[in-house]
């Protein structure tokens, strides 16, 4: 515990409860997930860059999404793994805590903006195929990505600044595996109610606001697909959207439970479980969602493996 007149200059992350054996088991599981996440998403980025069949807006956005997934999980998981492997509490400095929280939220917001843009892209491809190549040209795609990154980073400056304006004098123990905003606010001796309400409104604006174009786009997409006369045509049209839709359901579902709530200081066990979905499970599933359900990516991967095997033989 700390004096009521001082604020924490470093924090101790309590991480996961349990024995050292349990920690070692969790370390092995999360390390496997992290390794697959890095490898799978890197493979997608490389394929999008080198394979001509994947030179389209859909895969351009997918490459950036995979890059975001690598960054999001790398901000959280290495420190979490270190805490599981080493006995005792994991310490993090105040500037380190600020940087971790800001990057985590900014990259997550960028991802939401990009997912909304990908939904509009799928709408254009299915509902306006004749105008698709004209509207979704390389310049448009580049600007969409730039705006997504700018929006993600600029929109999280005030929320993080407001979080760290409070005095953390109750304790410096964070009952989490990273600098979670809700657990940080629990440590404050100040009245955080108004700030929590503003953060809730901003979360609604960002998450629900980026979800709205996705819902509208898929309403038009489903309506268009249902009017296709043949079953094979309907299947082909929907297959171009299935991967993105699956990822949207998993990603948005987790974040709606974690951030869109008036009271940020939720139970730590609840926050840990949902945070694991966002920072570990979703990035891990991303390569499988976009490869197992996408014939072009699977073909590009098979051809890439064959070329690599030929180079090894030569």
From TrEMBL:
MF annotations from Gene Ontology: G protein-coupled receptor activity; olfactory receptor activity
InterPro entries recorded: GPCR_Rhodpsn, GPCR_Rhodpsn_7TM, Olfact_rcpt, Olfact_rcpt_6C-like
UniProt keyword annotation of Membrane present: yes
Alphabetical UniProt keywords: Cell membrane, G-protein coupled receptor, Membrane, Olfaction, Receptor, Sensory transduction, Transducer, Transmembrane, Transmembrane helix
Residue ranges of domain G-protein coupled receptors family 1 profile in the record: 40-290
Pfam families, per the entry: 7tm_4
Subcellular location: Cell membrane
Keyword Transit peptide recorded: no
Gene3D superfamilies xrefs: Rhodopsin 7-helix transmembrane proteins
Membrane topology classification: Multi-pass membrane protein
Superkingdom in the source lineage: Eukaryota
Any one Gene Ontology cellular component term annotated for this protein: plasma membrane
SUPFAM superfamilies: Family A G protein-coupled receptor-like
Transmembrane stretches, start-end: 26-50, 59-81, 101-120, 132-154, 197-221, 242-261, 273-292
Protein task: Putative odorant or sperm cell receptor.
Family: Belongs to the G-protein coupled receptor 1 family.
Name listed for the protein in its UniProt record: Olfactory receptor
